[in-house]
Amino acid sequence: MIIFPFGKAPAVILVAALLAGGWLLLHPRGKEDANLVLWSFAKTHITAYNQALPALNHAYPDVKLSVKQIHFEALNRRLLSSFWSDLPSQPDLVEIEISCVGTYFKGPKEQIGFEDLKPRLVESGMYNRIVRNRLATWSNRGGIYGIPNDVHPVMLAYRRDIADSLGICVDSLYTWDRFIEAGRRFTVEGERYMIELNEQNVGSLECFLFQRGGGYFDSLGNVIFDNPVAVATMEWFVPLVTGKGRIGADLGSGQNAAVLFYKALEEGYYLFFICPDWRSSFIQEYSPRLAGKMALMPMPAFYPGGRRTSTQGGTMMAITKACKDKDKAWKTALFLYTNPEGRSRSFKKTNIIPPFRDAWTEPVFHEPNAFWSGQKLGEMYIGLADSIPPQYSNPFVVLAKGKLSQALVSCTQYYSVNGSSGFRDHIRKALTASADEVRKYQKRGLIE
């Protein structure tokens, strides 16, 4: 009997490795039959694109597309590394999320790793078909570096059944003043809050900042989150989430935050919450017991007649400069984003409306949604799409979000102790200090 000197467990592992290696030698993996490679981080997108492959191959027999799902962070690390090192292992097409796209615009314009698609968009007529403010997100120094996948207008979702039982008439909540007044009547501290709002993460705050026409940067790349609009927004927001009279609360952003949110929603802890189109599908999927009890309404305006939406999230599809057949990549990208069958299938799965105005007449966007109390969800989001505010990308947007978050924490802490006394001055100082930090980094890493 042969005894393996290192014990049974290593012997089993060795045998398994030898068997696996032998199988691979006898069954070599064939060379991938693809002339275009697409990377995406989004599982729902990957599924949709794989479902569209037969139709794509029928429309364009010369296209052999390989679709690869890559983890969000890994995708951006690998792609940036390949751009900076000019490595050959780059995809032809790639989807980039809105919070990361600014990173790709750092440095001289000619070193941006994506093809400028503005000439193709204009020549094809696509430029005038797309919601104009959505193109701003994917633009930099005169170029447009991606086709938008979405618009992501924001509404407020609410527990219709509870609102009805409390006598809340949502049609009367057309300004934030009226909404807050109602919120202070119906909020019960520790038991029920008018709206889900986060007092430390800027996700809630920035939604209102965009709605008011503010942001992190302007179209020229200047830092603006310490301007009068930002000061006024912070002064308005903080009392909603801290101190006496608060109407908003949040259960945190940890690992179980999503589970806690859905449970809280089902138990009536929140009456309203910020709901871009993509989030509405999550509610359907993870809170099925609320079917027929939910509804949507436009965001209240900051003044009568003002903007009643904002925007949150987003994705673009880009063509890399390394792509050897950009014409083929262009027609593939357009097919994946504009073919009616795929668009209809995607909307039924995600509730995401497309950025192409001519698509909005398709019947699927005008069907009642039973989960949302029979409302025509697509039609409602489409009605707000052209009103979304612009959101400008920048290489320093991640830093800016972090610095605004620091200012928010400082302001909530100050207000919880001091109330409104000296609050505006504190806001100005906190925002200016945070914004100046970003300006300092901008000067160190100038965009030529």
UniProtKB/TrEMBL annotation:
Q: Where is the secretion signal located? A: none
| Matching SUPFAM superfamilies | Periplasmic binding protein-like II
**Transmembrane ranges?**
none
Could you list this entry's UniProt keywords, alphabetically sorted: Cell membrane, Lipoprotein, Membrane, Palmitate, Signal
What the entry lists under InterPro entries is as follows: Bact_solute-bd_prot1, SBP
Enumerate the PANTHER family for this protein: ARABINOSE-BINDING PROTEIN-RELATED, POLYGALACTURONAN_RHAMNOGALACTURONAN-BINDING PROTEIN YTCQ
Q: What is this protein called?
A: ABC transporter substrate-binding protein
Organism from which the protein derives:
Candidatus Raymondbacteria bacterium RIFOXYD12_FULL_49_13
